[in-house]
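Hello again, I could really use a second opinion on something today. I've been staring at a protein lately and its backbone has me curious. Can you walk me through what the tokens say about the fold? Take your time with it, there's no hurry, and the full record follows here:
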Amino acid sequence: MTKEREQSLTFSHWGFAEWFCRRLKPIREQLRGPEAKGVNIVNLMLHETPEHAWFPNEWRQRANSFNYSLIYDLSTLENQQPIENIQNLMQLYANLAEQAPWPQVRALVPQLGEPLSEIDKVTLLPYLQWPRGEKVSDAHAKRILKGSLTHQSSGTGEKVLL
């Protein structure tokens, strides 16, 4: 993977993890339990180079995280819009989480498998850019969708068609 691709994908895709926390609030209790004692991270990692993957294609616990390293052609993410990639990756991650040996990871399956709503897309958009855009609440997203179908991008003043 080139450094340019890595940086570009980091800026345009991986903010999803921060946004996804909002989907975890309703299932917070399902994420607790003796299997998850001391664990506060689930890593679903994509690696182009197999040698960079820690136990490829296996679920493993490492320190305070549950990890899955998948060998993946990241160049395929460059051909679509980040929001489309996120939707596809969520389905992939749901399938992987379903195979996890820990019930806390399997509890993520419905949240990962749930397609992005139009409101989700509006609230996710600021996380898929660098620097991160101004966060959008669900209420504000509803107003945006009801109105002009554009959102002011932070920093640039540019309007982004949703």
About this structure: The radius of gyration is 17 Å. The CA atoms of residues 140 and 146 lie 10 Å apart. The chain has a mean pLDDT of 88.
